[in-house]
Amino acid sequence: MSITGATASPQQYLLSLSRWRPIEIAFWLATLLPFILFPNYLSLASQIAITALFALSLDLILGYAGIVSLGHAAFFGVGAYTAGIISRYGWGEPLSGLLAAAVLAGLVGYVTSFIIARFRHLALIMLTLGFGLLLAELANSAGWLTGGVDGLQGVKTWPLLRYFEFDLFGYVAYSYSLIALFIVFLFARRLINSPFGLALRGIRENAVRMRAIGAPSRSHIRTVYTIAAAIAGIAGALLAQTTETVSLETLGFQRSADVLVMLVLGGAGRLYGGLIGATVFMIARDQFSGIAPQYWYFWIGILLVMVVMILPNGILGGLSQIYARWKRK
Amino acid sequence: MRRSALSTRGLSKAFGALPVARDIELNLPKGARYALIGPNGAGKTTLINLMTGMLAPNTGQIFLGSDDITKLEPQQRVRLGLARTFQINTLFASLNPLEAVTLAVAERRGIADRFWQNIAVHKEAIEEAHDILVKLRLGDCCYQVTRELPYGRQRLLEIALALATKPKVLLLDEPAAGVPQEESGDIFEAVAGLSDDLTLLFIEHDMHVVFRFASYIIVLVGGAIFIEGSPAEIAADSGVREVYLGKRKHG
After folding, report:
1. Distance (Å) from the C-alpha of residue A16 to the closest C-alpha of chain B?
2. Is residue B86 one of the residues assigned to a domain?
3. Does any domain span residue B8?
4. How far apart (Å, rounded) are the C-alpha atoms in residues A234 and A188?
5. Residue range of the domain that includes B192
């Protein structure tokens, strides 16, 4: 996988780590397949892309910086409600809606990051869980603004770039979600290959050593937490705009738990893990709920137990292990 | 007036009723090669933890040059030029040495918060990191993930990471801990080859190594300085033999 040390300069070596690999290009080409192969499933494909974006945002904090969150849906929900409420009150332009959602979710992330950065491990899980529950209850009680348990009604998304009307089949919805996912992915990919990305891995690997090299870990954590919150907000806004409704479920505990499951399934800290995990999870949910809607978490449970037992680094971790073994032969 | 690179005044620390540092007065002149020795539980690592800020003292002061650093956070002390290594490997297991040392260099240069730049554009930082690795003879394994490195190489990486912070004072907590005796010389050769401007304090149990590489020795017993002096003075001291040297056999 890596080029040999003897010939390459250290700089070239580090550059080679961020080079696009054929498998990545194949992956992104494959995301176009639903247009041709499954035109009846474009709405599902759009939901997958949105969920993948949400999982990607969690990967930045969990997979790279080692911050376990059980309340990440809070930012998804803030983004969804921001875009939804703006639209409900008369401004349905999607791109500015996305931007507003990113800014507001990022702001909420920035404010909470001052507390998040001070804690680790179990305390962190409880804190993020607490923030998530708090925000969900706030949205529930502010029924005049959010619609409460009935959900936010009257969201109307204007045509994308004033031209592409959101259609019933989801052509525009999937195109829109996929492009947003890809652009944010490019940003995230740059981030993990940056000096900052290296610092995040340092925090995950050894917080004590980070102090011993003089690193301001807390400030790094605040930065990545804000970025991840903004990305989660974009994902939430995409869901609000493409489905034209926002329910309390967008910032519920279930969504926080689901996205964690997706990331573990796919493989955390691999950038593509969240994308793969979201795809597997969403397709599994679609298929299993067709068989027995009330029991489908049973199958997800089995899948999760199997993956964690057999592939501790998720589906992607397992695949790369097999690939490495095959290459050595 | 203080000429020392690192000094402490009346430094004390107790864990509950157990005193682990008692009224420690230390003066490390610039460029010194000090050894800190003493039996197990004498408080040697505790003293390093106190000086680097990983533990807070109950009383006393710590000075880096003429700056009082007693109240500073560990990472602030590092940025002022006080670095350390750990007795038990405290490394970035899934990073390779080049990535790890480049990270340390990037933190020192204040570029580690740049999430919008590819790491590879920072040619100078990468080359500085590589030079440090080459100097410590880690050049040939700098692309190998840390957890797969031989143990002795990991000990050297401990030192490389500390050097990347460009310290004025470097505290080495048993740099050759766990390394077979025939290899521990290599590690101390690397330490001895460091710049003369660098002030060094190292903890070490092997008396051959101590007498060979230290210009001055501090003996710590029960959290207090028992005696200090040149290697010749320490070797001649009967009290030291009793509390420390007499108990250990070294071929």
Report:
1. 9
2. no
3. yes
4. 13
5. 1-81+167-251
Residue B193: band (very low, low, confident or very high) from pLDDT cuts 50, 70, 90: confident
Mutation for B interface: A1, A213, A321, most B CBs within 10 A: A213
% of chain B residues with pLDDT over 70: 96
B99/A14 CB distance under 8 A: yes
Chain B residues whose CB is inside 8 A of the A210 CB are: 75
Residues B118 and B172 in one domain: no
Domain termination site, one of B148, B165, B182: B165
| Domain end position, chosen among B145, B165, B185 | B165
Q: Are B27 and B53 in contact (CB under 8 A)?
A: no
Phi, psi at A164, each rounded to 5°: -90, 105
pTM value? 0.91
Any idea what the CATH number is for the domain that residue B199 is in?
3.40.50.300
Question: What is the per-residue pLDDT for A218?
Answer: 94
Question: How buried is A95 (Cβ within 10 angstroms: 0-12 exposed, 13-18 middle, 19+ buried)?
Answer: middle
Give the distance between the most distant pair of CA atoms in chain A: 66
Spatial distance between the Cα atoms of A222 and A227, rounded to a whole number of angstroms: 9
A1 pLDDT tier (thresholds 50, 70, 90): very low
CA B133 to chain centre: 17
| Pick among A209, A217, A218 to test the B interface (most B CBs inside 10 A) | A209
Give chain A's domains with CATH numbers.
34-328 (1.10.3470)
Strand order in the sheet with B169-173: B82-84, B169-173, B199-203, B33-37, B216-221, B224-229
The total number of structural domains in chain B stands at 2
